[in-house]
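Hi R.,

Quick one: here's the Thioredoxin domain-containing protein sequence you asked about.
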Amino acid sequence: MSSEDFPTSPSPKYIPFSEEHESIVSCGAPVDLNLKSLFKDSTIVIASVPFAFSPTCTEEHIPDYIKHIDQFKSEGVDKIIVLSASDPFAMSAWGKALGVKDPANYIIFAHDVDLGIAKALGSDYIADLSKGGLGVRSQRYAGIIENGEIKYLESENELNFTEISSAETLLKRL
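And here's the predicted structure, written out as tokens:
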């Protein structure tokens, strides 16, 4: 998917990191992430995961992005947004558990409210895990958004983590 506008509604919810709430067991209040405003004159990387704290997401997928922060910055990426169906409190704690404690909030861990973003992108971006008791989640996907327009956006197949959603793939496409 490319050359389309990335959905900006509904607004994801996130808890901005602050030194006041640095501990994993302390957090602030969720706020709306205004994607329309964030996308204006910006390059944003999106990494979507099915679950906060799951093995693949925690041990491989998101650490891949964290490891490459300096490269993303040098390529002109203004922010990285990690999206999930997991609530904003879990997302905030997960970011801290992964060592992301940045008052500038370069990496934002956000809750895709009612999977509104994933649903707007289409069925390839939804994972129905109801048979396993895990409900409907977002599929693992990654994208590059420039000034609100999709430059690159691909979803993984069956929650796998491959080069499709890796940091290296996105860096090559910047």
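The helical segments are 35-39, 55-67, 69-74, 88-97, 116-121, 167-173.

Cheers,
M.
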